[in-house]
Amino acid sequence: MIKKSFIGLAKPHLEYERLEDTPKIEKIPNPEKVTFLIDALYNKKKALLKKGAAVKTGQKLAVYENKYDYFTSSVAGKVSSLSSYPGNFGKSYTAIEVEVADGETDDQFSQVANKPSIDNISDFLAFSPGNPSIKSFSNSEKPINSIVVCGVDQDLLITTNQYVVKSNIEAVKKGIEILKAVTRVDNIILVVSEAQAQSVSSSGTGIKIKQVDSKYPAALPQLIAKNLLGKVIPAGKTCEDMGICFISAEAVASIGDAFEKGHIPTTKILTLIKKDGSKVLVSAKIGTPVGNIFETLNITVNEKDKIIFGGPMTGSAVYSLDHPVQPDTDAIIVQDKEDIPVFSNYPCINCGECVRICPANIQINLLVRFLETGQYQEAADQYDLYSCIECGLCSYVCVSGMPIFQYIRSAKYELGRANTAEATNG
Amino acid sequence: MVDNNKFIVSHAPFWHDGSRISTRNYNMALAAFPAILLGIIYYGMPAVGVVSLSISSAIIWEFIFCRVTKRSITIGDGNAAIIGMILGMLLPATAPWWLVIIGTFVAVIIGKQIYGGIGANPFNPVVVAMAILMISWTDIFDFNEALINYDLDFAMVYPLAALKHFGVSAVDSFSMGDLLMGKQSGGIGSTFGLGLIAGGIYLIIKGIIRWEIALSFLAGVFITALLFNITDPASYAGPVVHLFAGYTLIGAFFLATEDSSSPVNFIPMLIYGACTGFLTVLIRNIGVYVDGVIFAILIMNLVNPLLDKISPKAIGKVA
After folding, report:
1. Does B319 touch chain A (CB under 8 A)?
2. What share of chain B is helix, strand, coil (3-state, %, to 5)?
3. pTM higher than 0.80
4. Chain-chain contact of B7 with A352 (C-beta, under 8 angstroms)
């Protein structure tokens, strides 16, 4: 954890991790059981997949009627259970547990692998490493006119996407070509870190390359749109609304690899940050429980430690060692119980640290007073709640130790829920 | 795998820079210490008595209030202690015990707690208390009269009072060095210019007070005093006296910069500081009060919420 320096006048300097040389990858062996989480409410009656069904490696398995509710099995075996799995903010997933056994590899995808199309990508590759966000291409109301391929990681400490750019640039290039061909979007840019800009641009081909600043939070989508594309995302709108699609380098590499090799990639690269702050790059099958990774790497976790999926500023903590690696899990952090910062219920003392560090220029000292009392609508109308780009810096510097970022997220969530309820009732 | 460990789950971010309200306040106490020390050296045990009583009674008032209102006890954050400490620094060493206790009552209860406690006070609690005390017991704050029994190795004259009553020639004897070394009469901890400046710089470097406010306040005092001085050097003292006498320095570093009652945006901070400095000299030169710092800060505290409306536009703001 980076503490405030003696000279507190200077803003905290949070630098993105730089990947200098190609590190060794720790391979995690296949676990006995893997779990896949699908972003859909568990419904036993409507489930197409039944307990006991045999699955093959790389097989696409539809769980519900909806075209996007499928997963790609990273192992062969048989389905041992389907259940509901609670997530953050009242979200509920369907968890499919697969018992691993020896078995063959599926060849469904290889039959279409020679003709890349948007349909093929969205039908087969949505669950591949990096989680390609292809849904936005099928939305005809909001056409996409720029694609940003992120060769940098959005949060601190993580080097997953930088590693992909470093070690698998060919697949990234291939993926970009495919994307260009199937989406007919000409403006595709590859965003890379300062450290990698040189080597990537010297590797040839006509990809547009842009460098992103190494200071957090420059690699967040809204800031990339603003600083590198010159497009300010209006408050409350997403990047997709404005025609910009963000896709990670790993996802593009997955697309490239899939069509090149004829099978769906199922191994996820992730950065594992140990208690002492040392980092290991790990490759694990999607669905591997985090406990298995710890076991392989001899990491002990004790009572009251914290396991975080994602980065230190924007990730989310998980409550069980059974939590599986998902297609978009770029990092896992183990935090010792001694290192967990204490948040308090102290009020804002108006010191203004948050206001001065906020990259979105929000008057957080005023905003937070509304959020504390649950006046979310006022917060949104008058104090720029929706301008927040969710970097978490306000909570990081808060002298009172207020969970400001959580206030903002829950306000957005509550407002979203109220609006949906209004829409359905009204 | 059988594992019954329970993990802590919480929300992002999982890092914190480690700053705390208590650390802030203890640093502030540290920064104020040199100025208090010189006051104690000059004025002896009575000064120790006033400052100690002020700190302890402020803490006790806060404790009582938290108890009565059934809130969690907040004395551990050091804020009440700081309020008491700064109030003690402003008082003359001869202040009677009841004045100190009334002062801390007004500061902690009326100045801070009734608005909802730390961070919710519209005015600087110490300044509210001082304003009420100064208006109610004028004699005690006539430093020349109050400190009449002291015979130190410098002229026991309160420069601002001398200036007001006897004109510019009365303060000619004060050199800048004397003023900086605290060789003037005044509040316990408000005369040692060098100590206050050192403490202020420490707080600025630590990022605890906002340099914009402190510096623009001093600049406001300097420029306004200079303008008065240029127009009529015979009736208005030069900027040096205004900068280093009275409550100017303690005001710049410890009073005007109070978190809750001052702005947080860059331009508002500059306006706030400069206007406070301007009003200070205005009150000193043409008002009825000897020192204008307290009332100037009080007035600008009132304007603060309006000033802070001058803020940069949030990104993506539609309107």
Report:
1. no
2. 60, 0, 40
3. yes
4. no
